[in-house]
Amino acid sequence: MEILRHADQVSAYIQAHPETEISTLIQQRLSELLTKEDTNLEDLVVFLILQDGDTLSDLEEVLGSPVQTTTGHPLWELIESHATCQEMVFVLSSSGFGAVVLVPHLDALQELLHLCRRYALPKSDSA
After folding, report:
1. Which of 5, 6, 46, 57 is 20 to 30 A removed from 28 (C-alpha atoms)?
2. Is the pLDDT of residue 109 over 80?
3. Letter string b/e over residues 7-37, b meaning 16 or more CB atoms within 10 A of that residue's CB
4. Sheet of 98-104: strands edge to edge?
């Protein structure tokens, strides 16, 4: 799992993967979130990019929270379906700090992809 907590990590990821939908989504979300010059990325969001071999348990450990309640109710704010990935958004604290989890179709854990596809909204025109 790629964990992008700091601006330099985000920049390095985008430079290493310039032509991917995930990089485009990260840039789009940053432009939506970083509306003030004095806003720090670290205060707003962490980007998690799942990779082959990552498990649902791994994701929950990094989030510090389960993805669903024990009765199956979702704990995410939104899941959006894109051409090459699923995007899950979690609000993790009352300050509004959140996580954007990007689940590539080719590399992701099938259980998580199935969950995303079950609850995903279609891709919006803004991304």
Report:
1. 57
2. no
3. eeebeebbeeeeebbbbbbbeebbeebeeee
4. 2-4, 45-49, 98-104, 85-91, 78-81
pLDDT at residue 119 is higher than 90:
no
- 114 occurs within a structural domain: yes
How many alpha carbons fall within 13 Å on the CB side of residue 74? Answer: 14
* Residue 105, pLDDT score: 84
Q: Is 125 a domain residue?
A: no
| Total count of domains within the chain | 1
Using a 10 angstrom Cβ sphere, with 0-12 exposed, 13-18 middle and 19 or more buried, the burial of residue 89 is middle
Q: Which amino acid is at 74?
A: P
